[in-house]
Amino acid sequence: MELNTNNKKFVIESLEKGYRTDGRGIYDYRNLIIECGPSFGNVQVQLGKTRVQAIVSCEIVRPFPDRSTEGFVNFNSEISGMSSLEFEATRFTDLEVYISTLLEKIIKTSRAIDTEALCIIVGEQVWSVRCDLHFLDFDGNFIDAAVIAAITSLKHFKRPEVTKDGEEVVVHSLTERAPVPLSIYHTPICVTFSYFEDGKCFVLDPNLLEEKFQAGSISIAVNSNGELCCINKAGGVALDSETIILCTMVASEKVMEINKIIKNALI
């Protein structure tokens, strides 16, 4: 479908009547598939036709002087030019920066991961955990797919066991000792809404066509305990408090469903 005025009118008028171009209801998520790879921390998420792969790795580094007992958790986003004609393979897009920053807010700022558990020797050696996100196919809503892929890969990941032999730190292979999972306090999951015109009409999990015609979007992160972790509004027209409260309530319900899918994928 071409992105012209007639199609925009068709999409918005359909939404006002409670219909969507792909046949979903206003609050319906697309089909979510989570596949955990053979190696720890390798996870692929498919949300409709949007596909994201997350790979977690770790290394031993020196901590910051003012946080000598804390390790690191970092996120890196890479959008492949093959995912959509909109993205160039050699260009670091604003969307990549936005997704990485939002992941920092949702997972790190909410203290979902115990960074002190990543400490090996205070002030000298800590684990630096890195989550690389590769965006393979794009049909809207990269944000939710990225957050689901990132938190699932972190829960799936296990680091090598380490022991101290005098002053020397020994890193054991996976065959010598059982690897150690990360200490994760809670599971924040992001739910994104697109809104149109004056903000009175909005939909859950927008596809690419809906994103093209949206007046703005709001992403709400809630954890498995029902606690609000983050609200991020990416510009657009203003939303009243009633709309935000309604979106938060819907997000809380959807997070419970998504969390069950994540648990089943990790079994």
Automatic annotation (TrEMBL):
GO CC annotations, alphabetized: cytoplasmic exosome (RNase complex); nuclear exosome (RNase complex); nucleolus
UniProt keyword rRNA processing present: yes
Main location: cytoplasm
The keyword RNA-binding appears for this protein: yes
Domain Exoribonuclease phosphorolytic: 29-160, 186-253
Location(s) in or outside the cell: Cytoplasm; Nucleus, Nucleolus
Pfam families documented for this protein: RNase_PH, RNase_PH_C
SUPFAM superfamilies: Ribonuclease PH domain 2-like, Ribosomal protein S5 domain 2-like
InterPro entries (UniProt xref): ExoRNase_PH_dom1, ExoRNase_PH_dom2, ExoRNase_PH_dom2_sf, Exosome_comp_Rrp42_subfam, PNPase/RNase_PH_dom_sf, Ribosomal_Su5_D2-typ_SF, Rrp45
A single GO BP: U5 snRNA 3'-end processing
One Gene Ontology MF term: mRNA 3'-UTR AU-rich region binding
Keywords: Cytoplasm, Exosome, Nucleus, RNA-binding, rRNA processing
Family: Belongs to the RNase PH family.
Protein name: Exosome complex component RRP45
